[in-house]
Amino acid sequence: MLPFLGPMSIVHFFPATTTPSISTPNKVTPFKNLESCSTMAELKQHHAQIIKLGLASDNDVVGRVVKFCALTQSGDLNYALKVFNLLPHPDAFIYNTMFRGYLQLYLHCITLHAHMLEKSVTPNKFSFPLIIRACSIDGAVEEANQVHAQVLKLGLAQDSYCQNNLIHMYVRFNCLEEAKRVFDNLEKKDDVSWTTMISGYSHWGCVDEALGVFELMPVKNSAAWNAVIAAHVQNNRFHDAFDLFDRMRKGNVAMDNFVAASMLAACTGLGALEQGEWIHEYIRSSAIEVDPKLATTIIDMYCKCGRLDKAFEVFERLSRKGVSSWNCMIGGFAMHGKGKAAIELLKKMEEEAMVKPDYVTFVNVLAACAHSGLVEEGIYGIDPSMEHYGCLVDLLGRAGLLDEAKEVINDMPMKADVGVLGALLGACRIHGNVDMAEGIGRQVIELEPSNSGRYVLLARR
Fold it and tell me: Cα separation of 201 and 212, whole Å?
């Protein structure tokens, strides 16, 4: 038997006692009850009824129990695993449900796949995309090759869903030749196939290869145009991106928010304010949805093209400001040496915003103060909380300024918590300062003696 790790404890696969089967009409009531279920308490009541009716080994009925537990927000993956383990002969549907439930625990998906094969249950076209994704994220190259062989063996070489996931997997592994081989062997390529291959080449800096794939497309939609334009922008080939954009417009392909974001980034890279203003006006006149990413890109373009006033105007008009929008505007003030404005905006963010400042926010404020010579304001002008001190210690620690980070802790008006001390401890380990790590480590353990991770961090010094 293969051990299978549950989220809370180690659970082992084991065979269950076969429960006598009941005639099909009796399935109606539990099915109906399960469909109206909304909590685990209700689910367990219905599950008890299923067992009482003698349907505990019925894949159709129990599969719905597993599905609720594994896939709904109010479910319980541990309970799903226990129910799964009691099934004598789970089918592919139930395995696929468990794959989906465990997809964020990628190694478990791979282990579950091995168990599936051990039980002589054949994966289907719905199983493989989930298994491939698990291999992809976990970097399980050897298992991935075996899965690819199974896909071919089971006659799924032309299943676009499976093949597109294989292309994406090989791209993540930086096996571009293998990804291209899968792509080339796919007779009916859909939009996902083309854009995955284009984006894959782009990710690894192979812009010419990405363009070559794009040029082979029989019909180029907005997703493909965005993929190839983004490929050039991300690799700093801004003039080529503009040439492609002109081709797209001549082909009467409408610009969407993704293409707009890519082209605004190209304008930023070239300092092309006039073109950036034209794209911004097009966005407004075409009623393109300004999502947080696009809003940030517009603000960034104006900041870096020297129009801080326009950037702030766009920022102020946003009905919903994400943390990236706040960070971008604060960063804009920083690059223009307006430290006091950056601090004021941070205060406004903390007072009014639904989002909290993050590491990037504080780094931008520090940069703004540094550029403006406002050293004291950078540290004290914002009435720093414990979280701010944690960011500052982390910032100094990452830069290798361990003595300065320790000095910040010593000068804090309140006693440093484990978060602040832990930031310095982690930095000591990264930069190999054993003596300081031992002193800080003792303080951390005194504050949080039950956290085994602190002992491990010290042991690895």
Answer: 10
